[in-house]
Write a structure and sequence with these properties.
The complex is a heterodimer of chains A (268) and B (309). With 268 residues, chain A is mostly helical. Helices cover 73% and strands 0% of the residues of chain A. In chain A, helix 2 runs parallel beside helix 5, helix 3 packs parallel to helix 6 and helix 3 packs antiparallel against helix 8. Classes of the chains: A mainly alpha (268), B alpha/beta (309).
Chain lengths: 268, 309
């Protein structure tokens, strides 16, 4: 034990330099923590891949559309996958750590608050990366999908960075649900929203009233953005980027409200 | 208090409200360097709020919170503080060593991981996942996370909840070890025995106000008197009329009497009830002092034991 390391109680000068180490450690250990949690790591990767194999590859081959189906659904199941990783990573991840007071322990430590959020974002995007890459591999090998290098890269970037608004929405959800109900509530939002946004079945194959509702839903915009990259989709890029940004803004607003509400609750 | 004028942390006329609830009302508090200060009070008294203010987790509505001469929401101040808070669950898929590495990274000059593990007594489980630990081991990990940054001020919020007697005494030893290295410690606890055993100074908080502070001895003597216990046919209602009786509690025929003049009260008791047995006279325990301080009723009072059991 180094007893020389002990007290020195001179006044402290404000420290202005940002230390990188907490950010790197937080990001690495958050990723490690989630990787070891099969409920998250296996489910968030396996579900979109399984759905894509069934509906995009197996069913697709039977219809007349052939590789077109596999190509189209690569974009929408890609969106489905990264949205799931984000909503569960933030929505459930933060709700659990908040509800069980672990977030309080972190906030009592000198951890820079941004490090926590940046780390979670990093974890979600890392899972998003794996999901998109696996889907592309399945699509290209089993589904006979043709992608140019440029299209592949663009689709990858759109999906992985397009997941950020869903991280924000997940964070907002986390501040309004308890740790135990979080998984159920996130599922109740995630699955119907994905369906109604045309991530499972193309939008123009859905009932008319759903087609009209879809543009109001956040997953629709990411799905269409990914489709536009592959030459499908409707609307313009600007349109959908604005759609996603507005939802991100709503998410930030809600998360802030929830955070403030939380602050008012603790006393004793 | 005379032992130290070097104040590490202080609240000056601090008021903190949550909506309509006033958690702290015009509270003044000073934590001297190198001491253990115990914050005592019933649930909802304002202890946790006081602790959170000093940890920079919130700001007061009015008044001033100062830690190491600065604002505890300032990052430069926070790296000198370690905290052990109550937590329902810790992420279970990280290993003990990984948790410590992560928290160490928040501090500019942490202890080495091996030092922290040794100080917290975690050598045998350092490689285990948190989810595989026993309750006592989990509590020691939280302690390790509080000390890993080599902080000058350590805040322990009910640190021994859920520990068995052995675990509690082991943790007390660790706290004393830190004090001998010059650390300052703020401790909140429900175990009054714990505050008595560890604290140099006790601050009793109730309903958002400091109602007493001093050494454990001063707290005990401030309410004065001794405790007389006996089994008697007399009722609490009879005894409370004896001169010098401050408080009477009754539990299944056993009287628990706090009296300013125990000799006279014992004489009266024996003359009024020749069948009296099991007589016992002790100094006021901190528990008794605590109850007397946090109870607003005028003396003498009769309290049914089950009220707080």
């Amino acid at each position: 034990m180094s007893s020389s390391a002990f007290p020195s109680s001179q006044l402290v000068a404000p420290r202005s330099s940002i230390r990188v180490s907490p950010y790197l450690n937080e990001a690495w250990f958050d990723l490690l923590k989630m990787l070891r949690l099969p409920m998250y790591s296996v489910a968030s990767i396996a579900f979109p891949v399984m759905f894509y194999v069934l509906f995009g590859v197996v069913f697709g081959k039977q219809g007349s559309g052939g590789t077109d189906v596999a190509r189209y659904l690569l974009a929408t199941y890609g969106a489905f996958g990264v949205i799931g990783a984000s909503l569960f990573g933030f929505g459930v991840g933060v709700a659990v750590e908040r509800g069980q007071a672990w977030l309080q322990v972190k906030r009592a430590s000198p951890m820079p608050p941004a490090a926590y959020l940046v780390a979670k974002l990093f974890t979600c995007m890392a899972f998003g990366t794996v999901i998109v890459l696996v889907l592309m591999m399945v699509g290209v090998t089993a589904g006979g999908v043709h992608l140019s290098m440029l299209q592949g890269a663009a689709l990858f970037l759109v999906l992985v960075f397009g997941s950020i608004p869903f991280c924000v929405l997940g964070l907002a959800i986390a501040y309004f649900v308890g740790p135990n109900s979080a998984p159920a509530i996130v599922n109740l939002l995630y699955l119907p929203l994905s369906f109604c946004s045309g991530l499972w079945i193309p939008v123009n194959m859905m009932p008319h009233f759903l087609q009209r509702i879809a543009p109001a839903l956040p997953p629709y915009h990411l799905g269409q953005l990914a489709l536009l990259v592959l030459g499908y989709g409707r609307g313009t890029i600007v349109n959908h980027v604005l759609g996603l940004l507005s939802w991100a803004a709503i998410g930030i607003g809600l998360a802030w409200l929830g955070f403030r509400r939380d602050e008012q609750k603790t006393y004793g | 208090m005379s032992e130290s004028n070097n104040v590490v942390a202080s609240l000056e006329r601090v008021t903190k409200k949550f909506g309509n609830v006033t958690a702290l009302n015009d509270v003044g508090l000073a934590i001297p360097q190198g001491r253990v200060v115990g914050l005592l009070g019933p649930n909802g008294a304002g202890k946790t709020t006081a602790v959170r203010l000093m940890l920079g987790m919130m700001r007061p509505n009015c008044g001033r919170v100062t830690v190491f001469g600065g604002d505890p929401t300032n990052a430069g101040v926070r790296v000198r503080i370690g905290a052990m808070l109550q937590v329902a669950k810790v992420p279970e898929t990280l290993r003990v060593r990984e948790h410590i590495q992560l928290f160490s990274s928040y501090y500019p000059q942490p202890l080495t991981c091996a030092e922290t593990i040794a100080l917290a007594g975690l050598e045998s489980v350092a490689g285990r996942l948190f989810g595989e630990l026993s309750g006592g081991q989990k509590q020691r990990v939280l302690f390790a996370l509080a000390i890993c940054g080599n902080p000058d001020l350590l805040v322990l919020d009910e640190p021994t909840v859920g520990l068995d007697v052995e675990g509690r005494h082991a943790l007390w030893d660790r706290v004393r070890d830190l004090v001998s290295r010059g650390k300052t410690i703020i401790l909140t606890t429900h175990y009054l025995e714990e505050a008595d055993a560890l604290s140099d100074r006790i601050v009793v908080i109730n309903n958002g106000s400091v109602i007493a502070q001093g050494t454990p001895g001063e707290i005990k003597s401030s309410i004065g008197g001794k405790i007389i216990r006996c089994a008697s046919a007399l009722t609490a209602e009879d005894v409370k009329l004896f001169p010098g009786v401050l408080q009477v509690r009754e539990n299944r025929g056993v009287l628990n009497i706090r009296a300013s003049n125990p000799d006279d009260v014992v004489r009266t008791l024996l003359s009024r009830d020749p069948g009296l047995c099991g007589l016992e006279v002790t100094s006021t325990s901190l528990d008794e002092a605590f109850l007397a301080l946090t109870r607003p009723q005028a003396n003498p009072v009769v309290i049914k034991e089950e009220v707080y059991q």
